[in-house]
Write a structure and sequence with these properties.
mainly beta, SH3 type barrels, six-stranded antiparallel barrel, 15 strands
């Protein structure tokens, strides 16, 4: 997998499954809010291919608290659509707002073939440990990935501190798993303190 071609790149959580069957459990979304009165739910997407993942009849395993009546159950997609710019899903057997609210915050998992990658996405374990390169020089190493509502963050150990880098194409234009590196083009001040800031602080002290 080479350079990121989407406007934002996303990582993909994966739980190793039965290697004999070549299957993994892939996290593809989270139900964040009931939408309307007919059982629809807004989605937070963890996939770059929602139209392929959320086709009618697609079945998802639920990650919910043990106290939830949905614990240990799965759901089946009835319909997926984008409404007012928001991804929305309808689920078999959930026909009203009350039923939808019982699924809020549930995380959706699906079986995925081990050799079937997401477009413009990488598993967390593929990114952790990669060298971070800026202007052909190694400046740090990826130590973990954090999944935030707005975007994913690469946590990079640079010298003695950790730096949070938004995992977007403008800042991380290239991921080369085979070469063991990610290339970054960070804005000034992300990895080092700006001289201007030091000068301004000195001026304030002088006043």
């Amino acid at each position: 997998m080479g350079s990121v071609s989407a406007s934002t790149s996303r990582t993909t959580d994966v739980v190793q499954g039965d290697r004999g069957q070549g299957k993994n459990q892939l996290r593809v979304g989270r139900l964040v809010k009931a939408h309307g009165l007919k059982g629809a739910l807004k989605l937070e997407l963890y996939t770059d291919n929602p139209e392929r993942r959320f086709v009618p009849g697609a079945e998802f395993t639920l990650q919910v608290p043990e106290a939830s009546p949905w614990h240990g159950k799965s759901i089946t997609v009835r319909e997926y659509r984008v409404m007012n710019g928001n991804p929305v899903v309808f689920i078999d057997g959930v026909d009203d707002r009350e039923g939808a609210e019982g699924l809020v915050r549930a995380i959706l998992w699906i079986d995925q073939d081990a050799d079937e990658p997401e477009d413009n996405a990488w598993y967390d374990h593929q990114l952790v440990g990669l060298d971070v390169v800026r202007e052909d020089a190694v400046i740090g190493k990826v130590v973990r990935v954090e999944h935030m509502p707005a975007q994913d963050l690469l946590i990079i150990k640079a010298s003695e501190r950790e730096v949070m880098v938004p995992f977007v194409e403008a800042i991380v234009p290239s991921v080369d798993i085979a070469a063991g590196r990610v290339t970054v083009t960070p804005p000034p001040g992300l990895f080092e303190e700006l001289p201007e800031a030091d000068g301004a602080a000195a001026a304030e002290d002088a006043d």
